[in-house]
Design a protein that fits this description.
Chain B: InterPro entries: NADH_DH_suC, NADH_quin_OxRdtase_su_C/D-like, NADH_UbQ_OxRdtase_30kDa_su. Chain B: Residues 1-26, 224-246 are annotated as: Disordered. Chain B: Keywords: Cell membrane, Membrane, NAD, Quinone, Translocase, Transport. Chain B: It comes from Actinopolyspora mzabensis. The structure holds two protein chains of two kinds. Chain A is elongated and about 105 Å long. Chain A starts with 30 loop residues before the first strand and ends with a helix. Chain A folds into two domains: 9-52, no CATH class; 91-343 and 371-459, Orthogonal Bundle (Cytochrome-c3 Hydrogenase, chain B), CATH 1.10.645.10. Chain A is α+β, with helices and mostly antiparallel strands. In chain A, the strands form five sheets. Chain A has a three-stranded antiparallel sheet with strand order 3-4-5. In chain A, helix 5 (146-174) runs antiparallel to helix 12. Chain A is built from 18 helices and twelve strands. The longest helix of chain B is centred in the first third of the chain and has 14 residues, at 71-84. Chain B folds into two domains: 3-43 and 50-55, no CATH class; 71-199, NADH:ubiquinone oxidoreductase Nqo5 subunit (Beta Polymerase, domain 2, 2-Layer Sandwich), CATH 3.30.460. In chain B, a hairpin with a 4-residue loop joins strand 6 and strand 7. Chain B is globular and about 65 Å long. In chain B, 20% of the residues lie in helices and 23% in strands. Chain B is α+β, with helices and mostly antiparallel strands. Classes of the chains: A alpha+beta, B alpha+beta.
């Protein structure tokens, strides 16, 4: 319809106010008649039927979803070609959170690299730290002591719980269940509190270092961890109550985002998505690291290969992680948490003083008052770092989203030649078109939620 | 390689190291850069007495049979499979075993067919391409750009590395998207970051950097960037201009 005064109504035959004659000129122009007050237009919805007719025809619309959209799971942009409500083509556009972390690590020492990689997949910082450290240890041909390995397992499993809780929270929010969101973030908060107690920070811990962990966990960790396990176990049934049997949840997720096993392998998809297609491929079982072979846990699988199966698997993985966490507490024996090599191990032990955390007073006394050599050693190790023998290594771990692999290349210097991160979010996101095309727009949201990409890891 | 300047009071070990690298054929994979001096610091007077020290660039040593473990089996099966597909043995330029990992340096002409052999041979079955990325060994290294592919066999639970080295002047590597569709994003990223052109890739466009970006940021001669920061009257230079000891 046009109510533009410039419309040359005079040229239209039958422009007399009847509004019925649309045989010539602009068919959508409003009819007009001359009155003593001037020209009066009659604006009607008379073209509504024509408009409806138009929608019956095949018409493709390309829409952009994101990058600033609350349902796209971060700064992810989706370009969707729609026919009506059906998605005929879907592509993801990424790079909005690219921070050049891989290049930055080439300008820092091997130990400083941990501080960078922990910020990549920010929902799985401890997995990043562990994979990075395991890679450097492989190049150094050392391995962390038993206690450090168990602490790593403990932290990684707690981290897996928190990551899956964020999947539940954000996934639920994207599908419209704000109760699910508050549940998920409430319980994740418990994990973050515990991680803060254990490592000193809620996120971006930089706690796991090449050679072991930064320091031992606090004395009363056992009580705190077991208390957390109890709280978590009492709250897990809530998720079943809220989601597992709920008709809306099932209707939104069942049969949506189907990706069979062969497609998973072709597209490189790992983690819960691969396991939802029926393959029990979990690196903790098939290529154990950090002593995972000593723990008793199951790898849940499903053959439904849809979003609902992925949801169920993640809830079950939280249960299995809690089992591992409990076993960790029984397995922790007193001992060193850093390799016994002063050329690698950080010289200082941290302690909390009246002005916050810093080097322990004993250490400061030693380097400042007693031993010049200790001071030189401390200074050189902290500023210069340690040499890593040349070579390359690929180290995968099972992150919450799948295979997190680190490809380290050393040229023998104190800084990495190359650190490449095979982030599971980045690779899994390629499966998004295969899952979403042919479905509805609403399913796109469910699909992205079930892939659970973390853009910090995708873009790095 | 810094084999030209091995005179003077060089330690015996450094002189020994330069020997094999000098003999190395040009296509040998140099994986590192040569160093001189002790602390990697340039632009200041040498007071340490180590200024004449030369450490040649690292060349991964060629592995000798037996490789150990399942490596021999995989190598045998690979050459069998290549024979069946009419790929000459010379397509595998070098095999190295280091830190429990086996690396096949291959000729780029035959990369796709070798990957297909790895994927399809019943005794190999590397179904999953875990990771594909680039490495840049720096401006002084011949064939400085490497395209590194990590393959995983879910059937046999094995991992191998397939590596191709190319020159900056001719950075073409055939795309393996046909064999491993998962390489799509990863090849785009490697093109974006290193400028390795993957021929026959379905849509080789930038993926992390903006479409109109100039240059390939993760090349060693691309500056890191950053601004000097003033802190309590002193100026801290950006990370790539700080003194380094490497």
């Amino acid at each position: 319809m046009s109510i533009d005064a410039e419309t040359p109504t005079g040229s239209r035959p039958g422009g007399d106010g009847s509004g019925g004659d649309r045989s010539g000129g602009d068919p959508f122009a409003a009819s007009a008649r001359e009155t003593t007050e001037g020209r009066v237009y009659t604006v009607t919805g008379g073209d509504w039927e024509d408009f409806l007719d138009d929608t019956q025809q095949e018409e493709r619309v390309v829409i952009n979803l994101g990058p600033q959209h609350p349902s796209t799971h971060g700064v992810l942009r989706l370009v969707l070609e729609l026919e009506g409500e059906t998605v005929t083509k879907a592509r993801s556009v990424i790079g909005y959170l690219h921070t050049g972390i891989e290049k930055n690590t080439e300008y820092r020492t091997w130990t400083q690299g941990v501080t960078f990689v922990t910020r990549m997949d920010y929902l799985a910082p401890l997995h990043n730290e562990t994979a990075y450290s395991l890679g450097v240890e492989k190049l150094l041909r050392v391995s962390a002591p038993e206690r450090a390995q168990t602490i790593r397992v403990l932290l990684m499993e707690l981290n897996r719980i928190s990551s899956h809780l964020v999947f539940l929270a954000t996934g639920a929010m994207e599908l419209g269940s704000t109760t699910g969101m508050t549940f998920g973030f409430r319980d994740r908060e418990e994990v973050l509190h515990l991680l803060e107690f254990l490592t000193g920070l809620r996120m971006n811990h930089a706690f796991i270092r090449p050679g072991g962990v930064a320091q031992d966990i606090p004395e009363n960790s056992r009580e705190k961890v077991l208390e957390f396990c109890k709280v978590m176990e009492s709250r897990l049934p809530d998720y079943d109550k809220l989601f597992s049997g709920q008709p809306i949840w099932k209707q939104r997720l069942k049969g949506v985002g189907y990706l069979p096993l062969d497609a998973c392998l072709a597209l490189g998809t790992t983690g819960p998505i691969l396991r939802s297609a029926g393959l029990a491929w979990d690196l903790r079982k098939v290529e154990p690291y950090c002593g995972y072979e000593q723990f008793d846990f199951e790898v849940p699988t499903s053959t439904d290969a849809d979003c609902y199966a992925r949801f169920l698997l993640r809830v079950e993985e939280i249960r299995q992680s809690l089992r591992i966490v409990r076993q960790c507490m029984d397995k922790l024996e007193p001992g060193p948490v850093m390799v016994d090599d002063p050329k690698i191990a950080w010289p200082a032990q941290l302690s909390i003083g009246p002005d916050g955390m810093g080097n322990s007073l004993d250490h400061v006394r030693k380097i400042m008052g007693q031993s010049m050599e200790s001071l030189i050693h401390h200074f050189k190790l902290v500023t210069e770092g340690f040499d890593v023998p040349p070579g390359q290594a690929y180290t995968p771990v099972e992150a919450p989203r799948g295979e997190l692999g680190y490809h380290h290349v050393s040229d023998g210097g104190t800084r990495p030649m190359r650190v490449h991160v095979r982030d599971p979010s980045f690779v899994n996101l390629q499966a998004f078109p295969a899952m979403a095309e042919g479905g509805l727009v609403a399913d796109v949201i469910a699909v992205v939620a079930s892939i659970d990409p973390v853009m910090g890891g995708v873009d790095r | 390689m810094s084999g030209d300047d091995t005179t003077g009071g060089l330690p015996e070990t450094a002189a020994e190291h330069t020997g094999p690298t000098e003999e190395a054929a040009p296509e040998q994979m140099v994986a590192g850069r040569a160093r001189k001096g002790m602390f990697g610091v340039t632009g200041s007077g040498d007071t340490s007495g180590y200024g004449g020290l030369r450490v040649p660039a690292y060349v991964p040593p060629e592995a000798e049979r037996p490789y150990g473990g399942w490596f021999d089996e995989v190598a045998d099966e690979l050459f069998e499979g290549m024979k069946r597909r009419g790929i000459p043995d010379s397509a595998v330029l070098r095999i190295t075993v280091d830190r429990g990992e086996i690396t096949f340096y291959v000729d780029r002409e035959h990369l796709v067919e070798i990957c297909r052999t790895f994927r399809d041979e019943p005794a190999l079955r590397f179904e999953l391409c875990s990771s594909l990325s680039g490495v840049d060994y720096g401006p002084d290294v011949p064939q400085r750009l490497h395209s590194v592919c990590h393959l995983t066999s879910l059937t046999y639970r094995r991992r191998i590395r397939v590596e191709v080295a190319v020159d900056v002047a001719d950075p073409h590597v055939p795309s393996v998207v046909d064999v491993y569709p998962t390489a799509d994003f990863q090849e785009r990223e490697t093109w974006d970051m290193y400028g390795i052109v993957y021929d026959d890739h379905p849509s080789l466009t930038r993926i992390l950097m903006p479409d109109d970006w100039d240059g390939h940021p993760q090349r060693k001669d691309y500056p890191l960037g950053g601004i000097p920061v003033e802190y309590k009257g002193a100026e801290v230079p950006p990370p790539d201009q700080r003194r380094s000891y490497t």
